[in-house]
């Protein structure tokens, strides 16, 4: 009891120490509002205030000492560095790309090890099949709701109405013919696992691992055991590898934000602002109106979930890459208390089938294009487009600039012009942050829900003794 009181006292002291720093940060923000919002103070005063505020955030991050806190600090620092020193944009991008490349080296061996241990270690393929059906049902329901929310949001705000045709130096992505149902099925199965790994085809890697694990269950235990031991060692080593890479995460995240701001400038928030606000407003409605109620229905402990989901979501937001957040999400969801079998199956599968943020964005952006071109789409036409997107969004994982590719193809198939999409390119990086973070958040929640559904969770905290609500 005395030790508990000592910890509580230490925590209170920490809060008292933090208060003056947060006041400094708040004053810095207020000074910037006076300088840029009301034009009362000179810009140099605002710049000095921002750096003082950053110093305060650096102190808080140092005292806190967690990677998540440093990542959040890097987000703010990166924006300031990109704004103040835009000439170094290419070098900022190097930091971001190095981090993403390091993360991509982990994905395939980590999936291979965790899936083999989770499935072959239990030898229950019926349970895997049942889990897969439940996961796919959940994915389809939630992504369909996301599409509907996107349609409703853009029809409510009418952000595209009256948009002038803007010249753009950006080139549109090459139109890719939307995948048909048979093509999606064929694309799921690998023809060469090395090729699948090199091209980052997560779903094909998962299918190969599932078949490999099933084959392992068909051999005798003494033959299976050596390879299972190897897979266990591989997965543990790759988790440690991930932890090493995560120490570089603040630099990668900061570089990604600095590059975005250096290239686009902070003024990009003013361009097409209504579309940006519509998207983020719709994402908030989706998170609070769909994901939160689902989490409560399945009795997911929200505080515990946010503790373990915040880091991969932050990485996804800054890097605009769900794949970059995948290794940390795999590790954290298992730490949260979801079984390795569920985590290793649901998270990578969700990367292809549960893109909540991307599907919401696509339905919203497609109607935005029609509004900007002054093309009236009937309710029936919008529903037809929604059904088309329900199919085509299942094939976008692993495609560069995937959402824009699908948006361009969908617009072409419905006879819509492409100049509004060229206008969207100006703020696509900012929209990509929100939709990718929502994708990762939705997949983390889907993992916890399928785990609850299957009875393969243990949300007891060994430190506090808290049990799932």
From TrEMBL:
GO MF term list: symporter activity
Protein's UniProt keywords contain Cell membrane: yes
Keyword tags: Cell membrane, Membrane, Symport, Transmembrane, Transmembrane helix, Transport
Location in or out of the cell: Cell membrane
Pfam families with a match to the protein in the record: SDF
Topology versus the membrane: Multi-pass membrane protein
InterPro entries: Na-dicarboxylate_symporter, Na-dicarboxylate_symporter_CS, Na:dicarbo_symporter_sf
TM region positions: 21-38, 44-62, 69-86, 98-123, 135-156, 202-220, 241-262, 274-298
Name assigned to this protein: Sodium:dicarboxylate symporter
